[in-house]
UniProtKB/TrEMBL annotation:
The lineage of its organism: Bacteria, Pseudomonadati, Bacteroidota, Flavobacteriia, Flavobacteriales. Mg(2+) binds at R367, R397. Its EC number is 2.7.4.1. Pfam families: PP_kinase (PF02503), PP_kinase_C (PF13090), PP_kinase_C_1 (PF17941), PP_kinase_N (PF13089). Belongs to the polyphosphate kinase 1 (PPK1) family. It catalyses: [phosphate](n) + ATP = [phosphate](n+1) + ADP. This is Polyphosphate kinase. The active site is at H427 (phosphohistidine intermediate). Catalyzes the reversible transfer of the terminal phosphate of ATP to form a long-chain polyphosphate (polyP).
Amino acid sequence: MLSEKELFVSRDLSWLSFNERVLQEAKDHRNPLFERIKFLAIYSSNLDEFFKVKVSQLRQIRKIRKPLRKRLVLQPNKKLKEIHRVVKKQQEEFGNIFFKEIIPELVKNNIHLIDKDQFSPEHKAFSSEFFKEKLAAKVTLLKPMSKENVFLEDGKLYFALLLRNEEVVFVSIPTEEPGRFIELPAYNGTYYSTFVDEIIKDNISAIVASEEISEVYSVKLSRDAELYLDDEYDGVLAQQIYESLPQRKTGQATRLLYDTAMPKPMRKKVKEALGLGKVDMVPGGKYHNFSDFFAFQDPTANKDLHFESQEPVTHQGLNSAEDYFKIIAGKDQLVHFPYQSFEYVQQFIELAANDPKVKTIKISLYRVARQSHLTDALLRAVENGKEVVIFIEAQARFDEENNIIWGRTFEEKGARVYYSIPNIKVHSKILLIEREEEKKLKAYAYIGTGNFNAKTAKIYCDHGLFTANKDITNDLKSVFDFLERKADHPDTKTLLVSPLNSRKRFTALIDNEIENASKGLRARITAKMNSLQDKEMILKLYEASQAGVEIRLLIRGFCCLRPGVKDLSDNIEVSSIVDRYLEHGRIFLFENNGNEKMYMGSADWMTRNLDRRIEVITPILDKDVFTELRGILFIQLNDTFKSRIIDDEQSNLYISPLKKSQALRSQYKIFDYLKAL
């Protein structure tokens, strides 16, 4: 019998492998220069969140009582060491990409990102004046007070200064205003900029007398996010873990990133001044918070340094339609972002808000945009006397505050607002509109794979189905009845709804393929999702593989299944696409001996999505929509430009075409495919 380790890849290590694919994009010279810089920013942002959430969780779990820890089959200390080993290797690669590739490429394009030692006399004069006018009043000096540790804010930048008297002090680096990057005077078409860090370092003597300073190095402290144990453990076990933890201090240090050049004796003093342990100290580069590079501007306006702009493809059915209801009543409509505009969704809600025949609008919002046409339309619907019911997930990680603010706004305007259900997050992306037609209420639905968010729809690859199919709309009414506390559970026959029936229905669909394979019939499973982690689903896929079912998976993020292992998963192939846009759609296709069944929705095959979240997955019933979505799925499966093989070694090798001229880049090919429709 195989052990857990032999059956499943560590979720955390697989996630780090995904972030390595992001780093590969920063290294890939096929990407324009400023896009490579953005991939460095994405990698950095991802890693910050990983430490705030996952590493924080491991650090806390190692403190719980041993009997409970054994039940979790976890070795947190061992895993933390492995994480730090992988991250250290990736950080070294990160530094090489930035300093040995990006910086020289910028210079070739007459863009110089320089440090204070490279300042010309004019730059020095500019630096001095800029510091006095823009920075001096915002910079703070922090010193240890008696036995109290210095408190550094989460994610903020600081300099650690070792003074001649061996004392360590800290200087804050304000970045929000005037920004992380400061433009310096240009000469003869050559552009210069610097980090705000360098301006402060150049003027450090205005804060601490230069004769007192021995060493100056940059540091950044990350602190715990709130523990989200319910994402991984069932309610009872999660509660036991919470109760087992010794009075947990929220916001305690998770890691201190320090400049690798910092001498060991100084590192020890910094560690003591901040009250940290050895495991909290993580070597980094000269600069931290590379996510700030999202805001790094190209002073040359050189189009060759950026991705070519791509105009959204017009939707064949909806683009010229004055009456969406008539079009959708006649036939299901499918939209794809960012290939098509999110405006189709917003216009549908705006139309409903202003239509006298529309009586009710119900929607679930997981990540609410700070401002959008969609939220404006919902508020207008309330003003126009519609019954507006909004379910807002108050526990959407890192968006809690914004979601609650919007919830209060909707409530004040007169909408009925519902918040989180205890121990269950509402992750579904659903909309239901009821309209009076021929003295009866007719229902229209939208079910998507992505959030109702116009901003993310420009960079996330998602799909959305508009339908008036009665089987689907009746089921969706039942889901909203449950969210409104009108029913104990959703009563659905067509939709797959977590945690009610999606696991059971997916298992039955896989069992059907196993049975067909055993009879020598056509049997194949093709699925695309963000992440694959649920052990029961993975074991079921292993069973299907051993029965002879062909399994082809497209997984963007982490994958805990071990593909291609002899006598375990010989018939399973897994690949991952990381490219210009973030793959976010979930599609499930079952061969069913030639009578294919396809589903689309908000759920990955993760335990939290199947058992602890409200997720809605819809069958694709319209033949034309089925063909369209299937076509997109197979374009992605045949990507030979930005697709990587996911293997048991986590090697992340690119899938290459036989001839370079035949390379297929799926995210570009889909534009052509939709134009051809």
